[in-house]
Amino acid sequence: MVASPGWAGTLSISSRTSLTVLADRIQVDVVAENRGSEPANRVQAHLYIFERRYSADAVDQLDVGRSRAFRFAVPLTPDLKGEFVFVGEIRYHDANYRPIAALSAETFKLGAAGDGLLSGSAPELTLTGNERLSVQIRSRDPESRDVFAALYLPPDLTTPQPQKRIRLKAFETADVDFPLAVRHRSGDATYPVLCALTYHDAGGVHSAVVRTVVHVKDFQNWFVVNRWYWLAAGGLIVLGWMGAGIADGGLRKK
Fold it and tell me: Which of 51, 81, 99, 102 has the greatest CB tally within 10 Å of its CB?
């Protein structure tokens, strides 16, 4: 079970996801809880598992202090073996019906699976413009593997290529870069971001989840908060701006 909050304004929705493996199916519960100070509108849960997306019926409103559970039943087949990622998403809307999301994820095992062959990490990132999120992937496999990295973002953030593939040599560490941009800028906000890592071998599937947080800073708000600094400087203030385009080279091996 994992909880990942998503903040935007006075809205604060948390997402808790739990999974139970049964004889012929997987039961997943995605719970949304309103921890903010205003109701959330048009609340809906989505489940990403086995490279598919499942969606539950939406509820019109989730009041402050209330929670709502969404249950999914996913069929199992005998050929599914290994360690898999599942992602729960709570999609909701503010008073202006702008879409927001809270994300949670974990891994689970079916049958025998190797432990700890794949891992990753990513730093927290503050966006003031177009930046990129660097996900570091570490392989402890004695063979070369094709690793797939899938990025899960809230609606306010966007990337041109949310899924990438990288070839890792035995015991290699490498970075995968995802350019990020803000789709809707309406002030400061903080969002959870997830990256699912997966590769296949003869024994089945190996997976890992990378979790991080992206802070969106509104430059205008920053200037207002720090206006005392600019006023104290006095006289003539010259601001130099230097921009550099971010090339989507994608992969940097170490």
Answer: 102
Residues 229, 17: Cα–Cα separation, whole Å: 45
Residue type, 92: Y
Q: What predicted TM-score, i.e. pTM, was given to this entire model? A: 0.79
Helix, strand, coil percentages (3-state) for the chain, rounded to 5, are: 5, 60, 35
Strand, coil or helix: 244? coil
Which secondary structure element, helix H or strand E, spans residue 222, and what is its range?
A: helix 219-225
List, in order, residues 6 or more apart from 158 with CB less than 8 Å away.
Answer: 180, 181, 182, 183
Rounded average pLDDT per 10-residue block, the chain, 254 residues: 43 89 94 92 96 96 95 94 95 87 93 81 89 96 97 94 97 97 76 95 92 81 36 34 35 49
**Contact of 187 with 156, CB cutoff 8 Å:** no
At 233, is the secondary structure helix, strand, or coil?
Answer: helix
Provide DSSP, 91-118.
EEE-TT--EEEEEEEEEEEESS--SSSE
* Closest listed residue to residue 67, CA positions, set 33, 101, 44: 33
* φ and ψ of 162, to 5 deg: -75, -15
Measured CA angle at 102 (ends 216, 68), to 5 deg: 150
3-state secondary structure of 32: strand
